[in-house]
Amino acid sequence: MDLSLSAAERAFALRVRDWLARNAERPEPGLSPDGAIAWARRWQAKLAGARMVAIAWPRSVGGRGASPVEVALYNMEYARAGAPQPVNRVGINLAGPTLLAHGTPGQQARWLPPILDAGEIWCQLFSEPGAGSDLASLHTRAEPAAGGWLVTGEKVWTSYAGFSKWGIALVRTGAGAGQSRHRGISCMVIDMEAPGVEIRPLRQITGEFEFNQVALDEVFVPEDQLVGRLHQGWAVAGTTLAHERGTAYPFKEQVAHEVYFDELAADPRTRAALGDPVAADQIVDAYVALGLLRLRNYRTLSRLGRGVEPGPDSSITKLVHSSMTRQLSDAALDVLGDDAPLWPAPDGDLAAGTWQRQWLWSKAASIAGGTDEIQRNIIAERLLGLPRG
Ligand SMILES: Cc1cc2nc3c(=O)[nH]c(=O)nc-3n(C[C@H](O)[C@H](O)[C@H](O)COP(=O)(O)OP(=O)(O)OC[C@H]3O[C@@H](n4cnc5c(N)ncnc54)[C@H](O)[C@@H]3O)c2cc1C
After folding, report:
1. Coil/strand/helix, residue 332
2. What are 124's strand-pairing partners?
3. Residue among 367, 376, 377, 388 to mutate when testing ligand 1 (max atoms within 8 A of CB)
4. Distances from the Cα of 386 to the Cα of 314, 318, 381, angstroms
5. CA–CA distance, 241 with 311 (Å, rounded to integer)
6. What's the angle, vertex CA 63, arms to CA 58 and CA 66, rounded to 5?
7. Is the CB of 364 under 6 A from ligand 1?
8. Annotated catalytic, 143?
9. What is the DSSP string of 25-85?
């Protein structure tokens, strides 16, 4: 394993750190939901102006053509700066790379620029009430109509649908049954403002409304919004999912949790708790779990540096991350005990209750981007060579 960064990589990380130190902004407290989105669009536009979003995209379309190692370093610096995440995450990390791989030049010219400056926000319309882990069992149908298709069905868990202009969707266009269910699926871009789209916000345990249920009732999708070939959407989805389970996320999460851990360690109640053997074990276990994620990330970085994609190995990293975030959040709430401020704070103070919010969010890590059980299946079948269950 080679853990050393080149001089150019170190210089790149320092440039990102320096830019964020001089330019990172925070939203003022008390913004309305619409005000918060408007602020987040402005912040992303500023990032885009400095080519500080979508840095892996080619220069010709507004990125920096950054290497995988540079992308990892960028994510670590970004997390360490505590800068607000770009609002168009799905556009930057999922839809954009999918359009770059499978979109026509016309689609790329139309859709990529407003992804960068958050002029048009995107969501991902993949999961359905009966199709999550087993995505190929999806039921949303696209029926041919003059000049395109009419799409009808139900999507769920759709993050950011409430303020998205476009949704990248998987729909059934052909029969496909049994072992060949993945055939006859197509990838289309749906206008979230088109007639027939109904968005119902879902309240999460954090009290926030990131997710939505999206009902589609004969929504017209023009021919030029098909991405890739008809009935070949499974291959297109493979690109989207590879980016969703990709390599950037664990680096950001490592540093964000290092910052959380430092805050917890600096709290006088943590020092007091270290005198109790049970609490001390919990804190140390969380620290070790965080160290494990760091080692996994070093391994990934070393492989990326040699041009090796992590592939199924990233399932181990995802499992390490989901158990680490639970352990650290559990330890924090136990240490802070009844003194932990409530989330959301009754007076609307966004800085209060962050540990409780973090504990609630930690539950999502074992589901989003493929559940823990699915990661274990991948490890069993593709890394250990065990027979399929
Ligand atoms: C924070 C977050 C954001 C999300 N954002 C989006 C989004 O923007 N767009 C979108 O399309 N989706 C989104 N999702 C949905 C996510 O992709 C699904 O929740 C996930 O794929 C699991 O699907 P499911 O919820 O239908 O659970 P199911 O697939 O129904 O699974 C239920 C349980 O059964 C287990 N299970 C299922 N199959 C197997 C198997 N073969 N072997 C062993 N155990 C199995 C699972 O592990 C799980 O414990 C988001 C989810 C989260 C948590």
Report:
1. helix
2. 168
3. 367
4. 18, 20, 5
5. 12
6. 70
7. yes
8. no
9. --PPTT--HHHHHHHHHHHHHHHHHTT-SSTTS-GGGTS----HHHHHHHHHHHHHHTPPP
Distance, CA of 77 to CA of 47 (rounded, Å): 14
Question: Structural domains in the chain?
Answer: 7-87 (no CATH), 122-232 (2.40.110.10), 245-383 (1.20.140.10)
> In angstroms, rounded to a whole number, what is the distance separating the alpha carbons of residues 115 and 176?
33
Average pLDDT over residues 213-223: 98
20: left (phi over 0), alpha (psi -120 to 50) or beta: alpha
pLDDT digit string (tens) for 6-30? 999 999 999 999 999 999 999 987 8
Task: Give whole-number Cα distances, 68 to 11, 79, 268, 312, in Å.
Answer: 15, 17, 39, 17
Are 234 and 172 in contact, with CB atoms under 8 Å apart? no
Tell me how far the alpha carbon of residue 133 lies from the centroid of ligand 1, in angstroms.
Answer: 5
Cα-based angle 109, 113, 114 (whole degrees, multiple of 5): 120
- CB-CB neighbours of 18 under 10 Å: 11
- Using one digit for the tens of pLDDT, what is the confidence trace for 264-321? 999 888 988 999 999 999 999 999 999 999 999 988 888 887 888 778 888 999 999 9
Beta-bridge partner residues of 168: 124, 189
200-218: average pLDDT: 92
Give CA separation, 113 vs 42, 51, 103, 225, in Å: 15, 12, 14, 16
What's the pLDDT score for residue 242? 80
Query: Backbone phi, then psi, for 155, in 5-degree steps?
Result: -115, 155
Q: Are the beta carbons of 294 and 252 closer than 8 angstroms?
A: no
Write out the DSSP string of 84-100.
PPPTTHHIIIIIHHHHH
The answer on pLDDT for 165 being more than 80 is yes
Written as one letter, the residue type at 12 is F
Higher pLDDT, 14 or 339: 14
Q: Which residue among 127, 210, 322, 358 has the greatest number of ligand 1 atoms within 8 angstroms of its CB, and so is best to mutate? A: 127
Cα gap 335→58, rounded to integer Å: 46
Q: Cβ neighbours of residue 107 under 8 Å, at least 6 residues apart?
A: 99, 189, 224, 227
